[in-house]
């Protein structure tokens, strides 16, 4: 499946302001199931782009602007080829077939903060342990149960506020955005001893019951020996990368916001922010 992704962010100001450097995480990550055919970034204000990678290996574009402006539009366009199977089979190492299991010393060291729960003794931990029906239990089935079970306790809602709710807030309020739901899943499985990471990117699924057919999206990945990092999307109760276009992964959502930056001026100079995302299939 070949997809075209257009992502546009527009800032408007009351008067021309000085723009601080903006950090952009917009380039999809390539792997055996995703190939980038083209990618470019365009900014309405004059500036220069420096490319780098962060500690997680995500591609970062840092834009330094050279002029004042009352409106800034940052646009990215990508064409990717997505070949992920909708019903993947995971070759999990026999040592991890049953939960609980122990990561190797090397895996423990490398997973580090990815396996560290924020509050292993809180309500989220108790909620996560309720999914463990027996000891031992099938590892993948346990993760699938948590992935599918979140929407039993939490309702999806579009949330325009910046940032991510804490996992405990999401449980208490019984609602959250895709990034809130993903953060709850990540904290829950970390409380059970799994290594997990946050993923941001795009989703393309015209049959989806939440979000648009194509939009920005947040989900999670869990590391299982032998299979590697497995995608879990609790917002849609799905497992595997089908329909997903990963852009970045990190320890938490705050580290992989698509566009971050600021300006020099008065607080009331800021008027509004608009974001438009379109993901469409290219049919040949």
From TrEMBL:
The keyword Zinc does not apply. Gene3D superfamilies: 3.10.620.30. Residues 170-236 form the Transglutaminase-like domain. InterPro entries: Bac_transglu_N, Papain-like_cys_pep_sf, Transglutaminase-like. SUPFAM superfamilies: Cysteine proteinases. Keywords: Plasmid. Transmembrane segments: none annotated. It holds the Pfam family Bact_transglu_N. This is Transglutaminase family protein. It comes from Rhizobium acidisoli.
